[in-house]
Amino acid sequence: MEDFMEKIEPLKFGKYTFLTSLAIGTYLFVGFILQLEDIALLIGSVGLFVILAVIMFFSRKIQWYKVGEESDENAL
Predict the structure, then answer these.
(1) Which of 54, 76, 53 is nearest to 65 (CA)?
(2) Are 66 and 75 within 8 A, CB to CB?
(3) What is the rounded CA–CA span in Å between residue 62 and residue 76?
(4) Taking a C-beta distance cutoff of 8 angstroms, is the pair 72, 66 a contact?
(5) Domain ranges of the chain
(6) Terminus-to-terminus CA distance in the chain, angstroms?
(7) What residues contact 32, with CB distance under 8 A and at least 6 apart?
(8) Are residues 53 and 42 in contact, defined by beta-carbon separation less than 8 angstroms?
(9) Is 33 within 8 Å of 44 (Cβ atoms)?
(10) Between these two residues, 12 and 29, which has the higher pLDDT value?
(11) Eight-class DSSP state of 69
(12) Cβ-based neighbour number of residue 47 at 10 Å
C-alpha cells in the first residue's frame, strides 16, 4: 500500500484541471436544465443563487479598496 501512495503523492493538479472541471460542470448544468422543461426556471434560479453564494463566500476577505495598491501583508 505504501508503494501505491508514493506513486500518487507527487501528482499535482494544475490550474487547467480546475478550469476544465468548471467548464464541464457548467456544460452539464446547462444540459440538465434544458432537459427539465417544466421546472427549468426554478432549477436555474436555484443554481444561480448557489453559484452567487459560492462566489460571495470565497471573495469575502478580499479588500477591494486595496487591490490596486502595493501588496500588504494584511491585504488578503
Answers:
(1) 76
(2) yes
(3) 6
(4) yes
(5) 2-66
(6) 40
(7) 43
(8) no
(9) yes
(10) 29
(11) S
(12) 14
55: nearest Cα among 22, 33, 28: 22
Nine-digit cell at 41? 426556471
The pTM assigned to this predicted structure is: 0.55
What is the tens place of the pLDDT at every residue in 17-64?
A: 878 888 999 899 889 888 988 898 999 899 999 999 999 998 888 887
Residue with cell 494584511: 74
User: Residues 46, 60: contact at Cβ < 8 Å?
Assistant: no
d(CA 61, CA 58) in angstroms, rounded, equals 7
Exposure on the CB side of residue 7, measured as CA atoms within 13 A = 4
User: How far from the centroid of its chain's Cα atoms is residue 42's Cα?
Assistant: 22
Nearest 10 degrees: Cα torsion 48, 49, 52, 54: -110
Cell numbers given for 70: 502595493
